[in-house]
Amino acid sequence: MLEELYREIILEHYTRPRNRGRLDPADIVVEGANPSCGDEISVYARVEDGVIQDIRFEGRGCSISQASASMMTEQVRGKSLQEVKALIEEFKGMMQGRPAEEGRLGDLMALQGVRRFPVRVKCATLAWMALLQGVREYESGRRTTVTASTEDEL
Amino acid sequence: MPLPADVRKDFPLLQRELDGKRLVYLDSAATSQKPWVVLEALAEYYRTYNANVHRGLYRIAEQATLAYEEARAKVAAFVGARPEEVIFVRGTTEGINLVAYAYGRAHVREGDEILTTEMEHHSNLVPWQILAQERGARLRILPLREDGTLDLEQLDRLLTERTRIVAVTHQSNVLGTINPIRTIVDRAHAAGAVVVVDGAQSVPHMPVNVRELGCDFLAFSGHKMCGPTGIGVLWGRLELLEAMPPFHGGGEMIERVELERSTYKSPPHRFEAGTPNIADAIALGVAVDYLRGIGMEAIRAHEKQLVRYALAQLGEVEGVRVYGPRDPEVRGGAVAFTLEGVHPHDVAQVLDSEAICVRAGHHCAQPLHRRLGVQSTTRASVYLYNTPEDVDALVRGLEKVKTFFGLPRA
């Protein structure tokens, strides 16, 4: 049961997170929070020609939220904002129990096991909610730091 | 006066096993387990005399009314109060909100001050924020000392002639700290303020007497003291309750209703609009009987021993940091800690795989956690049915957590 949640790749990303740190300047700056546990995460991204060129995250959280953020940064780098939004949708769908298309989520499939632990779903979606808010803000033409919460409508 | 050895047998849920492992329940600060007698009282009411109170002329309605009012008398005696001073509410949160709404709006004006503390549960902070914002009053905060106790040296500076209300917890739900309510009350009264005490973590665990505390309001929850959820108590000094406007308007709380205006009943009924939570109030009365049968002194002594043992055992676990006072004499049975290198969510998750129930998060005390410099903690909390074996299971569980996340073991 525990192994289903803490898949090896999750623990690996947790102990060796990719793309940790901040970007300054950045086109997207989001502060995400999970009010149920107090975890906070910041996501920074640089966008050029509608493509995420660079992305970083910082903040403290549990293994699930940290691993999910780390895996997210790997997956979205180099993708267009359209593709990123589609990926976020796909990920949200998987977390809500919709069957995911095998190829598209790649390593992220390891987070499927989180679904069986409803409280932890918010941990897994924290970084994704933050990025989604950031992309929306960017597309609206504003460039301010925004906040996102796992309590927001997915 | 030790506890009866078989007290665990009174709690059906504690007989459960999960995946063949004995359930170790260490989350009573969140909610307690319920003894058989309480479960049976609930079923008996619904099965044999379910009727609305205070109105029916038929016999089962009289029986229900009698049982409901008897429960009020039991709860009153439990905290050394008079029955007419005991208002049944949903829980501590509603009790405090009732005071903030009915007493606060009548007495707090622009420029007045409300004093609360850095260790409060959100339920004893947010209602005062709302009141202060609405009235243009100022919220002032009594800070914490490094040892997890309130900095009483700052109390006289923070109490001013504008202070109308002092809101303080009797026992911290995170640090376990038992606050010197009498001292705070004496100084607050000298400054002309009333004192509202959050008794959610104290009333279930130690003898509490409102006359000895000297406070003006005390709120507590039934579900943390072997009773059902959805029922709690606001005790208020009678002369204050008598002078207070109602909280909710509706049936049961009125004397005479005309189209334009109404007159209200005396306390406590003035504050119990609508059909009350009859079944749960009756069951809370039975929970109080149960606790008195065991003895609150004995429960406090048992928990003190357990906390002493838990602090010693946790102190042996490399990487564990416990928050709050070290002396069991000045603290209750909630023990919050962090394990270096592992997030509290992950600690609690692995403990759950060993059928150990603890809480992880900010425990509805975000400002306190900010003060402690952590986002969240893991909290183990004990009650009358916990044993040293439960503490041992927790310590073994923490070693498993460390192994699982690749940390060196002790």
Shape of chain A: globular
Query: What name is given to the CATH topology of chain A?
Result: Sufe protein. Chain: A
Tell me the major beta sheet of chain A.
4 strands, mixed
> What is the H/E string of chain B?
EEEHHEHEHEHEHEHEEHEEHHEEHEEHEH
- Head-to-tail CA distance between termini of chain B: 36 Å
Helix content percent band of chain A: 40-55%
Strand content of chain B: 15-25%
Identify the most extensive interface between protein chains.
A-B, 19 and 18 residues
**How is the main sheet of chain B built?**
7 strands, mixed
- In what order do the strands lie side by side in the largest sheet of chain B? 4-10-9-8-7-5-6
Average pLDDT figure of chain B? 96
- The coarse silhouette of chain B is globular
What structural class do you assign from the helix and strand content of chain A? alpha+beta
Class of chain A, according to the CATH hierarchy? Alpha Beta
Mind telling me the C-alpha Rg of chain A?
14 Å
The Rg value of chain B, from CA coordinates, equals 22 Å
Q: Count up the helices of chain B.
A: 13
Q: Structurally, how many domains make up the residues of chain A?
A: 1
Structure description:
The complex is a heterodimer of chains A (154) and B (410). Helix content of chain A is 44%, strand content 20%. Chain A has helices spanning 2-5, 8-15, 63-76, 81-95, 102-105, 118-139; strands at residues 28-34, 39-48, 51-60, 146-149. A 4-stranded mixed β-sheet of chain A has the order 3-2-1-4. With 154 residues, chain A is of the alpha+beta class. In chain B, 37% of the residues lie in helices and 17% in strands. Chain B is α/β, with parallel strands linked by helices. In chain B, helix 3 (92-107) packs parallel to helix 4 (126-135) and helix 11 (344-352) crosses helix 13. The mean pLDDT of chain B is 96. Chain B has a 7-stranded mixed β-sheet with strand order 4-10-9-8-7-5-6, sandwiched between helices. Chain B has a 4-stranded antiparallel β-sheet with strand order 13-14-17-16, covered by helices on one side. Chain B has a two-stranded antiparallel ribbon with strand order 1-2. Classes of the chains: A alpha+beta (154), B alpha/beta (410).
